[in-house]
Amino acid sequence: MRADRLLRILFTLQSQGRVTAEALAERMEASVRTIQRDMDALSAAGVPVFAVRGGGGGWELMDRYRTGLTGLTGDDAVAIIAGRPPQLLKELGVDLSDDSGLLKLLAALTPEARDRAEHAHQRIYVDLAPWGAKPRPVEHLQLLQKAAWDNRVVQLRYAGKPRRLRLEPYALVAKGLVWYLVGRTREFRTYRVDRIDDAEITGEPFERVADFDLAEHWAQVCDDFAASLPEFLAHLRVKGPAANRVRWSARVLDLGNPDRDGWRDATIDTESEHEAISVALSLAPNVIVIAPPSLAAATTEAARAYMSRQSTMSRQTEDTQ
User: Fold this and answer.
1) Which of 59, 133, 168, 264 makes an SS bond possible with 206, Cβ 3.0 to 4.6 Å?
2) The pLDDT value given to residue 68
3) What residues contact residue 265 under an 8 Å CB cut-off, 6+ apart?
4) Residue 273: inside a domain, yes or no?
């Protein structure tokens, strides 16, 4: 792959200094013409490579090219490379499709960090989108990013309401593939960016709260949201495949060890009795509803109704044949 060859060229120039095009071509198993095109690509990406003509000439990097990032460790490099979701960065106006930024980063690393980063580049990829999901357009994202960066008040209309809000845009947060704006009027609130109808930056600056910490604030937002969700606890007995599937069907608060017959106690947290019924039915036949009694009765009734409808449908099918 060309990107891999470009990285190998950079590593060679950093470790050996000046290298002829012929030597690079032999080492990369490519033609001299291909190496010339690679050098043009590196130069276009901002990597300071240049050719020295005459006897003893060849290609080399400018002196001290990598001094700015030599303090990065291997873990630092892996974190930077693995933690760059392309979709979110593209929405912010950062296009990494040509990998030029990655090339610059890797070229600036120490040999140990560079080896780990190159290793991770082909083994870790962050894709935040669930299967089949298409994120809604976020038209005002870059405007809000600029306003937050420059500490400028914005005015916007939100969720179809006619009244314009005046707020201080503190930060943007990506939760999955959904962007949220942390804004402050009299108090901090959270707004979905894809629900903002229009927005404009005013010329008015604002002064940020001195002790505001974005990570701490967002952790509290998530805790408050989780606490606001309705809660319906259910106690089940599960066996075999159901013991594995229950983890995917609901939030499991406790899953006991199997008894002699393979049954395990499970306590699950759902948002409503209706959802708990759906979970229990999805685990059939390897499930027993223990509590609450109302859930056990409702699940039994739902199962009976299903069997009755299935039996009726089967008889109707037989009558038409």
Assistant:
1) 168
2) 45
3) 235, 236, 237, 254, 255, 256, 290
4) yes
